[in-house]
Amino acid sequence: MEELVKLQRSYFNSNATKPVDFRITQLQKLYDLILLNEDKLGDAIHKDYGKAKFETFLTELYIVYDELKTAISELSDWAQIKPIKTNLLNEPAKSYIIPEPLGVSLVIGPWNYPYQLSLGPVVAAIAAGCTVILKPSELTAHSSGLVAKLINENFDRKYLAAVEGGIPQTTALLEQKFDVIFFTGSVPVGKIVYQAAAKHLTPVILELGGKSPVIVTDDSDLEIAAKRMIWAKFINAGQTCIAPDYVYVHEQVQKEFLDKVAAEIIAADYSIANENFVNIVNERNTSRVSALIDPSKVFVGGQYDIEKRFIEPTVMTGVTWEDKVMQEEIFGPILPILTYDDLDCVIAAIKERPKPLALYLFTKDETIKEKVLSEVSFGGGCVNEALMHISNGDLPFGGVGDSGIGNYHGQAGFKAFSHYKSILDKELVSDPDVKYSPHTEAKLALLKSVVA
Ligand code: NAD
Question: Where's the active site on this chain (predicted)?
Answer without folding.
Answer: 207, 241
